[in-house]
Amino acid sequence: PGEQKLEIDRRRIQERIDEIRKQIGEADKNRIVQRQLRKKNEIPVVSLVGYTNAGKSSIMNCLIRLSGDQDEERHVFEKDMLFATLDTYNRRILLEDKKMFILTDTVGFVSKLPHSLVSAFKATLEEALNADLLLHVVDASNAHYKMQMEVTMRVLKELGADAIPMVTVYNKIDKGSLVNDGTSESAYISAKTGENVELLLEQIKSKIFKDHLLGKFLVPYSEGRVASYLCETYKVEEMDYLEEGTMIVAEVSIADYNRYSAFLV
Ligand SMILES: Nc1nc2c(ncn2[C@@H]2O[C@H](COP(=O)(O)OP(=O)(O)OP(=O)(O)O)[C@@H](O)[C@H]2O)c(=O)[nH]1
Ligand SMILES: [Mg+2]
What we know:
Rossmann fold; Alpha-Beta Plaits; binds guanosine-5'-triphosphate; binds magnesium ion
């Protein structure tokens, strides 16, 4: 009888293990499906990275607000404390010209992360580092900002993310001025006053949508779905109903340009 109980226990444990495995498997599958969906629709991903307390979450909220979402509930947590952000947050930023990107906020980096935390942090960062563009946020008012930048660059390198295009965002300029090198690889902003945040958004756009091409399509009326797809997805510069079909002029992604090249005129 003792042996029988042991056998039952073992079976229960095995069942529980299988259950958990299945759940993890499904979570993985979800993540993969989501990533594939995103790739298919080619929504670019922009990730905020940088030292803790640099202002990543504040910038995220600025950009959410700029994109017209005033709903405070959808904003992320920002606070003057270490590790205010403990996980990765994704928000869709929809722009006026129908262009769209996904913005992710990540945990902040520090110089001496306890070893037991390193792997947990890397796991949450991994997803975010699947980005098309990194915004390296720097607290320009901090006396140690150079050291903090080095730490961030080192962590990015360890994560294998040092090849992703990057804009360095010097934040908190309201607390004092900093030399401005004026290149398109850096931005000087204040998430607090909102200064230059619109400029930053323009920089982001020019980086992630640079592969768009202006196309003039003549879509036959029998291909109504293509015409409505183009109109829904892009800002239409010009449209006309001709005898042969709908004439649409719009800036589209290279993928769509190639996909609908048969309709180009
Ligand atoms: N003066 C000033 N303060 C700012 C600015 N941007 C952010 N802050 C403040 O800096 C603190 C940290 O901001 P967060 O946005 O939480 O920083 P974070 O980089 O997300 O920090 P972690 O999540 O810990 O990595 C908050 O108290 C913000 O109000 C700015 O442009 N100017
Ligand atoms: Mg944060």
